[in-house]
Amino acid sequence: MPPRIAAAARSERGARDANEDAACVLRDGARWLAVLADGAGGHRDGADASRRALAQVEAALNRAPADFEAASLTRAVLGAHAAVRAGRAAAGMEAGGGMHATLVALWIDETRGALWSHVGDSRLYRAHDGRVEQLTADDSVVQRLVDAGLLTPGQAATHPRRNELVAALGIAEELEPHTLARPVAVEEGDAFLLCSDGWWHELGDDCLAGTLAQARSPDDWLDAMHRAIVARARPRQDNFSAVAVWIGDAGEVTRPRMKAMPARA
Questions:
Q1: pLDDT digit string (tens) for 163-207?
Q2: How far apart are CA 241 and CA 21, in angstroms?
Q3: What is the pLDDT of residues 122-135, one digit of tens each?
Q4: Which pTM does this prediction carry?
């Protein structure tokens, strides 16, 4: 029997004047599509970029069902890149500047597994049995420095250039989306989290796993992480958005179990 799947999404303005993030989760029979984009370029332009990106990926994979393969997902992301470029051109912006967006997409076929792709620094995580794994690597200046051994991950988290990207939808250069080459199996208890940098920057792996262990649903999990972000009360809190996708009851798999006590004689 295919695994049961449940999903939920959040997108919050934070301390900014407008929300330039966009997130959605869609189902078409045995297929699920979760997409998150983080726009930039000014309030209206950033919001336009993220919404164009989501609409294009949805059109390519959900409204006009495509073959469940990496090439289809890559084409959808490249289509989003073209859509953001077109929006920038329509607004009269020069090729080297203006609106752009990051994007992360998770595509699941209940019988064939999961594929994902991303551009920029919106991330995808997978949690299972209390372990959290980051499945994407940021297209950022500091990640390049970490990869080169010039920074530790801890130093990267507070580096003054941590928000500088080396790739995003809508830039003048051509893109090569980071798409998983072939589907991977999903397991009962897998919990996926797509999130913008305004979300993941505030939460460490321990918080992701800890809140999951107490959650009863994807909505519960997002609510708990949302509370943790709000409790930090950062005066310049960025927009923060996330999509949670559970395979079966991820909280039940992660939740610590009481050890059975030996029977008394």
A1: 789 999 999 888 999 999 999 999 999 999 999 999 998 898 889
A2: 7
A3: 999 999 888 899 99
A4: 0.91
Phi, psi for 12 (deg, rounded to 5)? -120, 145
The answer to whether the beta carbons of residues 216 and 254 sit under 8 Å apart is no
- Residue 262: per-residue pLDDT: 46
Residue count of the chain? 265
CA distance 259 to 73: 44
Distances (CA, A) of 193 to 57, 63, 104, 124, 210: 18, 23, 10, 6, 14
Q: Looking at the domain 5-252, which fold is it?
A: Phosphatase 2c; domain 1 (3.60.40)
Question: Is residue 117 within 8 Å of residue 177, measured between CB atoms?
Answer: yes
Tokens of 246: 């559970």
Q: Which of 22, 25, 23 is nearest to 46 (CA)?
A: 22
Instruction: Provide the residue ranges of all domains of the chain, joining segments of one domain with +.
Output: 5-252
